Amino acid sequence: MDWTLFASAFLSATLLPGSSEAMLLLRLQGEVAPTALVLTATLGNLLGSLVTYGLGRLGNTATHARWLRIDSADMARAEAWFKRWGRPALLLAWLPVVGDPLCLVAGLLRVGLTSFVLLVGLGKLARYAFLAGLSI
Description:
Distance between the termini: 20 Å
Oligomer: single chain
Shape: elongated
Helix content: over 70%
């Protein structure tokens, strides 16, 4: 397993800034099989999203605004996506700006863990597989 890629993907999926896509594209230039790299990035990114989801389950909106410094506009946007699209919105948890708040809102709204993992994992896998396909 490429632990540097895993760590980059993990941190990028939390509320910390980062770009695991750039790291994946860099690693794809090496000798490691693209499938292994895509799965490593997906796993790291999914686990990072689970941390954000867990923070949502453990807290409330006021806590997140105060301690996590989550912008209220991002949170309102994520909540609106959930109201309009429901759980399938989690397929877009890989998107910049709204992806992390979507995972947090999923935790706040007590979305089931199984559906969270399946939808977020599928969306993130599709994104990394698409990037890998472009670079080959």
